[in-house]
Amino acid sequence: METPGAAARRLELVFCHCISKSSGQPNEDSCAYDEDRQIFVVSDGASISYDSALWSKILTGHFVKCADVDEFWLELARKEFSEHHNFADLSWNKQAAFDRGSFATLLGIEFDPDKGKAHVLGVGDSVLVMIDDVDGWITSYPYEEPSQFRQDPILLSTKSGSAFVPEESIQPLQLSEHPGVVTLLLMTDALGAWCLECKYERAIQLAELADEEAFKDFLRTEQQAQRMRVDDATLMVLKLEGVA
User: Residue 243 and residue 221: Cα distance in Å, rounded?
Assistant: First the structure.
């Protein structure tokens, strides 16, 4: 049942930063959004693959343009990736890496304010967490437990024939069921694994980060204490205000 007045509520982007794992190193994470159209997305390029920073950037860019992800959508993204590289000009080892493919996660959300409903696409080990100021922890997707980060994730590949099945990767969220302030956190894997260790407590800690410098200080502290793996880190925080 929808709460009266909930249809007018919109997601507000309150925090969005991508931090490289080390200074001078390329950041293989990417994020993008269109707040007017209520589309938000993050992607984590796999370090072991060729030019995964570009692949993650292409995926997030395509998602913002069109959030209806299917095989045709993916082929368009693959075509754009290929057009950025002249295979004949690559060294033999880069040609071999290109042939093996590039890989990345994709975690995107599209919210319909009129219906109070969001659709979340989760491919790989980037994680969405949902909490509110009434019930606390609500859910996380596509992972629910930190142990799941030890398995090999399904990733989107620049090569055809991947294990990705669009309809199996989409999770609906009925945000209008929650009249309080709803907070959604989209994060890449190192942050996600850290957050799911203590769930609500750590989700609140992330949601209260003030700016990029606070984010960097937080990452440095947790990484040096070995509570978090050193990796690129992306955090996007969205808020849906409560019903007046």
Answer: 36
Tokens of 161: 């024939």
6-240 belongs to CATH 3.40.50.2000: no
Query: Looking up tokens 């590289």, which residue turns up?
Result: 85
Single out the residue of 149, 173, 153, 172 nearest to residue 164, CA to CA. Answer: 153
pTM: 0.91
Tens digits of per-residue pLDDT, 102-133? 899 999 999 999 999 999 999 999 999 999 99
Is residue 51 within 8 A of residue 102, CB to CB? The reply is yes
Q: Characterise 221 by phi-psi region: left (phi > 0), alpha (psi -120 to 50), beta (else).
A: alpha
pLDDT tens digit sequence for 19-35 = 999 877 789 999 999 99
List beta partners, residue 128: 141, 186
Domain ranges of the chain: 6-240
